[in-house]
Amino acid sequence: MNKKLISLITILVFSLLVLAGCGSSGSQDEQKAANDTIKIGFLGAKTGGHASYGLETLKGMKMAVEDINAAGGLLEKELVIAEGDHGSKNSEASIVTDKLISSDKVVAIVGDPTTGLTKIAAPIAQQNQVVLLSAGAVGTGVVEIGDYIFRDTLLDALAAPAVTKYCAETLGWKKVALVTSINNDYSVGLSNIFRDALKKYKVEIVTEQQVKDGDTDFSAQVTNLSGKQFDGIVFTGYYTEGGLFMKEVRKQGMKQVLVGGDGLLSPVLWEMGEGAVEGSMVYTGFAPDPNTDNAKTKTFIDKYKSNNDNKLPDMFSAQGYDAVMLLADAMKNAQSSDPKVFRDSLAQTKDWKGVTGTITIRENREPIKSPVYLLKVAPASNGNSWEWKIQAAIPVTAE
After folding, report:
1. Strands 372-379 and 281-284
2. Topology of the domain covering 36-153+293-368
3. Which of 232, 279, 322, 357 is the most buried (most CB within 10 A)?
4. Tens of pLDDT, residues 228-238
């Protein structure tokens, strides 16, 4: 064997040893980073039609992580968020959920803020025994998917009857029009709850109209309302369609206002509907109440305002914050970040004090929260836009 060939072989062997050493070092660094952190996944929309919900939820989650890490971390480790973005697409929700679990190795997922997408993600989390806690899904059929599925929201099943009672007894409503978005699981479920509540409190439904998410022309449905006598419109869909629907209501000369669930809770409501949505009422599990005596809530509101050009937080940011804090406290109480262990601790949550109020998790992993805030669209104090103002804080009881 000549000297050149020996020299080439020597160089090749040395290079392979160096590369192997580098690979080992990189692998060790990655393993060390994994051992020093606890990952919670964010499942929501940062783009697309539901981005308003997702981005606010993520803001609240990040605030909670900052507070936890500033106080020394979680179980002597750094808490981090692995972010997913399904772009408001049903087809992407399962892909993002799979990635959070298989690639990012999260121990829990906060999301989705909507009912329909939560139902897509929940079976995947359940199958992989990863805790999923939605900070927004309020419709039916969510926690029934499995014993790793939770939520920290104000449930429609509790809120809608309370709001119906308020409309009937305080506002004096006797008759309503009910509008449902039939390709939206959240809307269909909420309409079913409102039907029962309206019947209970003796409010007549004079007409039911069907719309679809993505519709922009509601002239036919609104025309069907004309000539009928009713006190208000119960709209169970989302903010984009709600705003456009009310614009058509005003265009056709009707004066009734809208009431609905937190699917309407977004500035997009008045961006779409403009002055037509003035007086519209939306219920929510959180409001930046200036009269609150909850110190955690005051601190959260002040910090949010300082980080967001003096804007006030909404339900999604507050519930995103509480979701992370709930998960962190469950892990602390269990002294483990293993979902199989801290899941039981989370399920035993009783009278937990968060920024959105007091939360108790019942045996079916559903939360009880009170009160429900009823917000009303009113002219903003700067005179240039619109804002939410608290119409009422209504007590909620489990029925």
Report:
1. antiparallel
2. Rossmann fold (3.40.50)
3. 322
4. 999 999 999 99
